[in-house]
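Quick start: read one record
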Amino acid sequence: MNPFHLAFPVSDIEATRAFFVDLLGAEVGRESKKWIDFNFFGHQISAHLKPEECQHADANEVDGDKVPVRHFGMVLPWDQWEALGDKLKAADVSFIIEPKVRFKGKVGEQGTFFVRDPSGNALEFKTFRDMAGLFEKGTPE
């Protein structure tokens, strides 16, 4: 799989660095006073200092939860997903959606949780018992 690139606004570079490096395990790449690149599970994400662009996304109802429409994140193996959820809980990170299994017994059954970075950007971390479920066709609802 080819790495993707995502750029997103942040309100504080150092708080962003701490969140992505210390909590999520990202590595810092190139950086300046106004942006910082991270190796985010093998993908390049770029946090750009632009506080006026930071705002909470509206939500849609998905399997009984209010999911932020604008979000990004990672699909992890189940054990890594559980370990990251436990690490964030231990660090008293506030969850938008607590770790749970969504679409139980349906197409697309997955483990998922949502958090916000210090600038309010929503991140989702999900997992599948069988990674083939990631692109499974059908309607879970």
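The two ends are 29 Å apart (CA to CA).
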